[in-house]
């Protein structure tokens, strides 16, 4: 089975060709970083126009790299949401056009499910497993019990962790995107224990997260330094922030592990996915935690942590081989929770429920 995947949910335009033998024949991603950096974040209108301008060329390139024609495809999969709706529409309409012209099945993929199932593409992880999904717009702990079967154990009540990285980077004057820049600064720190930061939700019952107060604490330290930071100030504060995030994530995951093992005593892996999963310090902390609890730890290769079309093609394969596809009347969704039965997050609307921030 060969599937073309299309991803246009935020600020990466991507196309990929993947087989049901877990072979990634092509994986092409065009970043819009230069377009959005002057604004300190993603501008939806700019993102949608860039998708429209570049997607056709990326699809042609992916098909050429895979060495196939459209007649060799078994299905076309595209991110149907959640995300910035203008970009999602571009990807969905392009996939529908290919499907209609070639008489192919169309599969609308939940972008979050793409991240959730990446570990099955890269490591053939068996169900069930515990997933920490961490990105710019999402921070959730989920029991993954099958394709389309997700139970949310915890979510952020305010900011997503990737959003906290971006805002902290802005406070420190590091630029955008925040995640990799904070990680680089933290690696340069000479006194990583210099600043004390709060550990939101640490030790509390449940598996929910909170990062708004942590971001505020960083701002207060910046203000106490007079708003003018030396390179050492930036590096040490970045290290403190990163270490705090890693500790909080590990604490919340530890609670989720205990709950997951009660419900699934046969076991399963701890999987981390999403853009923040590319952070090496966080990966190392979670790997240690998983080992402590006797669980395999799986994190996708760094290039498959950030948004990509290979994960969309694979999620399309997972659904299609179960006999699932979507009509061409499918409507793109700005919000699309993995667990629709879960209660809404307490804080900012959309966090943990489908808005790409």
Structural overview:
The chain has helices at residues 33-36, 44-66, 85-102, 111-123, 161-172, 178-187, 212-224, 231-263, 280-292, 310-320, and strands at 2-7, 12-19, 24-31, 75-81, 106-110, 129-134, 139-146, 149-155, 270-273, 297-298. By secondary structure, the protein is of the alpha/beta class. It has a 5-stranded mixed β-sheet with strand order 3-2-1-4-5, with helices on both faces. A 5-stranded mixed β-sheet has the order 8-7-6-9-10, with helices on both faces. Helix 3 links the parallel strand 4 and strand 5. Helix 2 (44-66) packs parallel to helix 3 (85-102), helix 5 (161-172) runs antiparallel to helix 8 and helix 8 (231-263) packs parallel to helix 9. The longest helix has 33 residues, at 231-263.
Q: What helical percentage do the residues reach?
A: 40-55%
Instruction: Note poorly predicted spans.
Output: 348-357
Count helical runs: 10
N-end to C-end Cα span: 34 Å
User: How many strands, what sense, and barrel or not for the largest sheet?
Assistant: 5 strands, mixed
Q: Shape from CA axes?
A: globular
Structure classification: alpha/beta
Computed CA radius of gyration, to the nearest angstrom: 20 Å
Approximate strand percentage: 15-25%
What is the strand and helix layout of this fold?
Elements: E1 2-7, E2 12-19, E3 24-31, H1 33-36, H2 44-66, E4 75-81, H3 85-102, E5 106-110, H4 111-123, E6 129-134, E7 139-146, E8 149-155, H5 161-172, H6 178-187, H7 212-224, H8 231-263, E9 270-273, H9 280-292, E10 297-298, H10 310-320
Parallel strand pairs: 1-4, 4-5, 6-9, 9-10
Antiparallel strand pairs: 1-2, 2-3, 6-7, 7-8
Helix pairs in contact: 2-3, 4-10, 5-6, 5-7, 5-8, 6-8, 8-9
């Amino acid at each position: 089975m060969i599937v073309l995947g299309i991803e246009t949910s935020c600020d990466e335009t991507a196309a990929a060709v993947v087989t049901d033998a877990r072979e990634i024949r092509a994986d092409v991603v065009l970043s819009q970083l230069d377009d959005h950096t002057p604004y300190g974040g993603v501008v939806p209108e700019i993102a949608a126009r860039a998708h429209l301008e570049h997607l056709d060329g990326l699809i042609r390139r992916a098909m050429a790299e895979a060495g196939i024609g459209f007649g060799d495809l078994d299905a076309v999969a595209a991110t149907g949401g959640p995300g910035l709706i203008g970009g999602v529409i571009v990807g969905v309409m392009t996939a529908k056009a290919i499907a209609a012209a070639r008489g192919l099945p169309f599969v609308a993929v939940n972008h979050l499910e793409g991240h959730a199932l990446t570990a099955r593409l890269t490591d053939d992880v068996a169900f069930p497993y515990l997933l920490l999904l961490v990105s710019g717009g999402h921070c959730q702990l989920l029991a993954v019990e099958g394709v389309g079967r997700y139970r949310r154990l915890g979510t952020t009540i305010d900011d997503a962790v990737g959003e906290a990285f971006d805002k902290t980077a802005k406070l420190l004057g590091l630029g955008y995107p925040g995640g990799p820049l904070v990680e680089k600064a933290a690696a340069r720190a000479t006194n990583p224990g210099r600043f004390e930061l709060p550990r939101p939700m640490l030790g509390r019952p449940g598996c929910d997260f909170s990062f708004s107060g942590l971001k505020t604490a960083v701002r207060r330290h910046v203000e106490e330094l007079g708003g003018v930071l030396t390179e050492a100030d930036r590096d040490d504060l970045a290290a403190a922030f990163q270490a705090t995030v890693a500790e909080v994530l590990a604490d919340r995951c530890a609670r989720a592990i205990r709950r997951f093992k009660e419900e699934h005593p046969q076991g399963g892996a701890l999987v981390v996915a999403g853009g923040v999963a590319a952070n090496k310090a966080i990966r190392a902390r979670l790997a240690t935690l998983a080992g402590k609890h006797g669980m395999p730890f799986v994190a996708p290769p760094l290039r498959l942590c950030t948004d990509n079309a290979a994960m969309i093609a694979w999620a399309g394969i997972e659904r299609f081989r179960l006999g699932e596809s979507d009509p061409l009347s499918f409507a793109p969704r700005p919000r699309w929770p993995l667990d629709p039965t879960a209660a809404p997050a307490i804080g900012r609307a959309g966090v943990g429920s489908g808005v790409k921030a």
